Fold this sequence. Notes:
The chain has 446 residues and is an alpha/beta fold. Helices cover 30% and strands 23% of the residues. The protein has 2 domains: 1-338, Rossmann fold (3-Layer(aba) Sandwich); 342-438, ANL, C-terminal domain (GMP Synthetase, Chain A, domain 3), CATH 3.30.300.30. The protein has 12 helices and 19 strands.
Amino acid sequence: xxxxxxxxxxxxxxxxxxxxxxxxxxxxxxxxxxxxxxxxxxxxxxxxxxxxxxxxxxxxxxxxxxxxxxxxxxxxxxxxxxxxxxxxxxxxxxxxxxxxxxxxxxxxxxxxxxxxxxxxxxxxxxxxxxxxxxxxxxxxxxxxxxxxxxxxxxxxxxxxxxxxxxxxxxxxxxxxxxxxxxxxxxxxxxxxxxxxxxxxxxxxxxxxxxxxxxxxxxxxxxxxxxxxxxxxxxxxxxxxxxxxxxxxxxxxxxxxxxxxxxxxxxxxxxxxxxxxxxxxxxxxxxxxxxxxxxxxxxxxxxxxxxxxxxxxxxxxxxxxxxxxxxxxxxxxxxxxxxxxxxxxxxxxxxxxxxxxxxxxxxxxxxxxxxxxxxxxxxxxxxxxxxxxxxxxxxxxxxxxxxxxxxxxxxxxxxxxxxxxxxxxxxxxxxxxxxxxxxxxxxxxxx
Length: 446
């Protein structure tokens, strides 16, 4: 199919559907997938019967609220039960052509199976996101993501389907990746935000000027929150002279489920594939669009393993108003993981807020580590930072200024700020960086 490279939309009809028409299509798919799950997945048959609901109860989109939630624990508890794919799967193994797995950072890794149709629609969505950020067939693209069971690995196929020249980089050592950037002069790269920033630093230390020696015009980041944090995005853009776009995905569904457009006002989510709810993190009460809570997703078209009311563990909100870019699919904003959020003096603290403050301080390298600990039966937090080489402020002054900036932004200051020299923190990583260490022995149920 020949496409007009000047058209800003991959699928203009779908991406600009009037809200009423989009919801009409969602309802048709919701009715079908709920019935399919009930008829074919043992868990859903048992769960719906126990809750006293049946597929025929879906008359409007709001009726999904009658159905029970599932979460990661549901996946782990049902995986491998009754069959290799487990009780949430709704197709036989012979219909599955691909599986990815989660990282296992919150427990036993969980698999995500795809039928051929599931996988093809997944890659068409990736093409849509790539096109949305401005990638075209004349681009050269480096996919610098893990290919080992990671659901983001196959996203490179979406770029190939678009027509771009694709370099399957994977988890290359930095020196090799810099060689590729210098030799092949790609225009687009995808990696994590922390690694995009660190790779730029390594390039500078190796004697390269990323703005002149390379040809990167667009940087896609995902896997961490940095791409939607203005200070972090600006720090990356300042090094590379390239525009940064944040993508969001879930191993439980598929690679990138949502992506920023040129306005960087939230991430457009593929509402033709995902029905989005936001619920109160304490009560599970459904919130109105625009309110902040835990995001709950229902897959509308994935048949290998449908997810009905899956609690993602991500804290955020959705804006369903039409974007300035002309797209009508809602835009999500992610504040952090429910698991990572902690409470200090009755204030909800997200690591993303701390990152924003650290990255705004010109005298810091931008590297940081958060330690959460218990003292006098309450939670406290400490922040470790790196002072940039050549800064003439003493450590005590730096610590005091960082503490004051955190108090102003978050509402509660850290118990202490520890200042290291440039390179003193072991937080630099080729991919995701570990930045939060929870030393508490008690379980704060939020």
